[in-house]
Structures are given as C-alpha cells and as structure tokens.
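User: Some background: our group keeps a shared notebook of sequences we're curious about, and every so often someone picks one and asks for a predicted structure to add to the entry. Today it's my turn. The entry only has the sequence so far, pasted here. Could you supply the structure so I can complete it?
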Amino acid sequence: MELRPIFLVLGLLVSTLALFMFFPAMADLVAHHEDWKVFAISGLVTFFIGMLFVVGNRGAVSHITLRHGFVLTSLSWVVLSAFGALPFVFSHLGLSYTDAFFEAMSGLTTTGATVIVGLDNAPPGILLWRAILHGIGGIGIIVMAVAVLPSLRVGGMQFFRMESSDKSEKFMPKAAQMAMSIILAYLALVLACFVALWIAGMTPFDAICHALATISTGGFSTKDASVGYFANPWFEWIIVVFMLSGALPLTYYVRLTREGWEALAKGSQIWTFLTVVATFTGMLTLWLWFMRDVGFTEALRMAAFNITSIITTTGFVTSDFSLWGDFAMMVFLLAAFTGGCTGSTTGSIKIFRWQVLTRYVRTQLALMYQPNRVFTLKYDQSSYSSDVVLSVIMFVMVYLLSTAILALAVSLTGLDFLSSLSGVAASIGNVGPGLGNVVGPCCTFEPLNDAAIWLMSLAMLLGRLEIFTLLILLTPNFWRR
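Assistant: Of course. Here's the predicted structure to add to the notebook entry:
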C-alpha cells in the first residue's frame, strides 16, 4: 500500500489539532495562568511536525482509496491522541504520559472517563482543551460512521450507505461531500446548547465546555462532581434534551432542512431509541419512588438524567447511582450495552443492531410454525439481505467477546470483578463511568495502574472504531495487492 497519502492526511489532521491548542492557551493567558506557555509550545511543536508530513507528501491526496480510508480511520485516533496528550503531560497537572494518553483518548473517543482529580481548581486551559477534544472527536465519529463504516460493512452498517450509486473506490470525495452539512448541523446544536445553558444561569465558560461535551455525548465536565455540582434542575433538563439530540443521526437534521418533519417518520430507529430511553427511565423512576423513598418529581429527574447519560454514552452524572440498589445497577449495566442511533456521536451497540436482531428472532420464531412461508427482511420499508443480519450477529458476538477478554485482562492487574467488567464495558462502549467504588460515577480511573490504563485505552479505541475497523488491519489479505 502506498503510504504517502496516509502521512499527508495525518499531517493535515495533526496540524489542525495544533491550531486548536491556541484556544486553551488564550484562556490561560486571560486567566493569568502560566500553563498558556505549555499550550503555545505544544501547539507550535505539533504544527511543525504536522506540516513536515504535509510538505513531504504533498500531491498524494489524489491517490487516496478506500483501503487508505480504513487505515486513516484507525491511525487518526491514535496519532491525534498521542499529540493531544502533550498539554496534559507538561501542564501543572504533571500527568504521566500513560495517564495523559488515556485522557486524550477518552476525549477524542468521547468516552468521558478521566484520571484527573481536582477539576474544580484546574486551570481553564485544561478544562477547555478537554472539551475541545470532545468536539473534534464528535465530528470525526460522525464522518466515520456515514463515510467509512458502510463501505467496510461493519456490523450491518452497509445498510446505511449514504450514496449507493457511488461504486468507486475513492474515499475522500464521498466523505467531503457529507462533511460540510454534518459539521454545520453539529455546530448548530453546540451553539443552541450553549445558549440554553447560559440563559439558564451557567457561566459562559462552563456553558461552552458542557455544550461541547453534551452534543459530542462525551461527558467531560468542569467539576469533579460533574453536573451534580450545580444542583440546578434547569441545567439537568436542558442537558437531557441535548444529550438526546446528540444521540440522533446528524444526517436527519440535514434531512429536516430539506424534507421537513416528514423525515422523522422515515427513521424507525429514532422512535425505538426514544422508547427504550423512556422505558428505562420509567423503571428507575418507579424504583426510586417506591423502593428508595424519593419524591416522584425528583425521582423522575434523577432517573431521566442519569439513564439518558448512560444510554447516550455521555457519562455525565448527578449522583452516585451505584448506591441506588442492585436492581438499579443491573439497569445501568444493561443501558451501557444500548447505544444511540447510527450516524450519531454515541458508542456501544447501536440501537439499529438490536432492531435487526429482534426482527430476525421474530422471523425465526414464525418459521418454526410456518416453515413454508417466505419472509422478507425489511428495515424502514427497505429490504435487506441475510448478510446484514450475519454482520450484526458477528459484531455483537465480537463486541461481547472483546469485553470479556479485556475485562479478564484488566482483572489480572489486580482490579476487582465489578470494576473490571463495568470499567471495560464503559470504555469499549465509550460510556465513561463504570460501577463500584473504584471506577464508579463518584470516582475516576486515577487509581488504576499503567497496565490497566493502557488496556482501557485500547478498549476505548476498539469501541470507537466499531472493533472490525481495527481488527481488519491485522489480517494479511488487507495488505496484499
């Protein structure tokens, strides 16, 4: 494979990341914090290295093919995390590179798990940089979901091919055609969330940080206690609305501008997703109301915020739901394996995959008493082949198997069973907080040793790349002509 196009695009991405480092540098400079030098120097070094790759490989972009796209999809998260970790290493936080890489990977994959303690007193540059990493990662995830994964046929994603008439192997032109409309819709949601939080009483700085983390379904907050620090119901309900907005396909917002509200009727996964959220919320509301003696209004708010945060894989919390009882913990564990819609910034097992599996099971049950009947597999009035079902089944099996293997590996580092399983499930699902008193909603991943931190970073990358996108690079046939 010709590698020059890969180095060229990676250079462009690294150079762009460097430009974003000057925003937290300005924030620290305004706050008279000396860490502005860290961001300025890190930005200059990163930009210089990125431009070296661009200049050394200029003219190679016309040779980018679909295979290059697969390699870029995997390398981009790794390389950007490697450079995005630099400010964490050299700032006053003094993180090791292992912890800094974890923090950057968590930001770019919009996982929201953190190893930083003392966010309330952290400099504004660090807080803004974490939010910017969420924003950059959120856009990249959507472009990957609508441009790369359908061509790779990952977990049934071929069903969501946006331009089925384009049979060429060119990768970049297709991505470029969708990028602008997706980015505009994304930025519009961030702006709307920022304005709503600002009007509700949040400071402009906290509002922009939480808006970037909410729409990207990331979960990095500016406070150790996350959104629970503010103890403001208005903030919580606004964030609930925009977490749900970020969990919907960004392409549907584009379609709304062209087709009107009729576009929503064509997306069954949207209504299925909202129904699942409402069901989980209702279950937890009744549990808190009857079994934990919490007032109905407060129970509804607590359940709606925290369950929406987990299902959308955002990771914000308002209370330690590990203390709600065993039933609540089981609900949250199940929610961690239920993602949002395809084409959104959410992680985990997307809701359309559960739809496909449910319909396939229903079909197989019908064939047991009607063996001669011919069934047509349909999704949103469109027929699809059994290959899509097989792809989804393979994805779910490999997803669960990867979770089990990584949880076993993490447990070898000395972590207890619940923390190992929930921590890996939260990482591979890009959820953020796990369960228990080590990686739970009230804690951080800071107590974990380096081996566990690297395994969690791998889990975040696997989940973000839909597993097969990374595994395909390990097959010899991929690298042959």
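Suggested note for the entry: The CA atoms of residues 227 and 363 lie 44 Å apart. The radius of gyration is 22 Å.
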